[in-house]
Amino acid sequence: MKAAIPSGASGILSSLAESVFAAGVGFLASGILLAVLGKDPIKAFYYLFEGSFGNVTNITITLAYASPLILTALTFAIGVRAGLFNIGAEGTFYVGAAAAVAASFVHLPFGLGLLLILIAAGAAGAAWSVPAYLLKSYRGVHEVISTIMMNNIALFAMQFVVLDYLLDPTRSDKSSSIPIDARFPVLISPNLSYAIFFAILVCLGVYYYLWQTPGGYELRAVGLNPDASKFSGVNPRKPMLYAFLLGGITAGLGGAVEVAGTFTPFAIYTGLSNLVNFGFNGLAVALIGRNHPLACVVAGVFFGALQAGASSVQILGISFEIVEVVEGMIVFAVAAPQLYHMVRSRMK
Description:
73% of the residues lie in helices and 0% in strands. It has a domain at 66-305. Helix 3 (56-81) runs antiparallel to helix 10 (237-260). It is built from 13 helices and no strands. The longest helix is centred in the first third of the chain and has 30 residues, at 7-36. It is mostly helical and 348 residues long.
């Protein structure tokens, strides 16, 4: 007699099969596009994966791309668990990065400087999420509108902060660099640091909070059925506040990871050019990971692989814009099932 598969395991296998099928559809559709454009899709995908996992250096670049994306993905994933569409990770990411650079001006012994940077970035991210919570909780402003507005405010506000307070005195195109002893230690090569383990640790912490604590249970309960939760005595404002604060912390930490833990020059370029789209890409990562903290790690590596392999595909003479379209088709196909389930649940 075959052993029965537990419902939880069955659900995981079903989601995995759905994701694999969706990924196949995405690769097939993008392959057809490449063929129509006169390019060899087999070679394109070969170079895509070779540029992501072909050697140790490429793997480190993939993981370096993934590290901040894992953290910004948590912002959206936590919000969805609470019944929110928090798309404010982009702006909060800017705020966290700026706070990290500012905190690095305080020179502390090895380890303590990095700790201060992470605390500053997380606190700044949490503080930046408060207005969206207040507008939602007390004025009924939808979080999509408020977080989009906050993203734009953060973009220009942090440009001002970098230009007026954090600018490198020897250069006019970037902020001051974070000192070596305040950065994440290098792991394998300068491309990758221990920031990847920090991102995974944060995911584990978020998972533990959501599934192993009373506060996390309330947060998920409100997201699943706010009316029933309120009837059972749960004040919906409290879980909502925790969702905004926790999402702000993770996005802020993502900004710190990007300027203190990856292969960027450990600074912020004026115009925030090296920080753009990490928050929005994190939303796609969350959808790919089915808004589960642990699955966001795998989804982040998947998205990081696409980013890392993009330059290799251009060897075939495929323009960067076409590579971006191919990536977008793959990501959309993989994220579409979760997006469909989210919209369907909202329409019930």
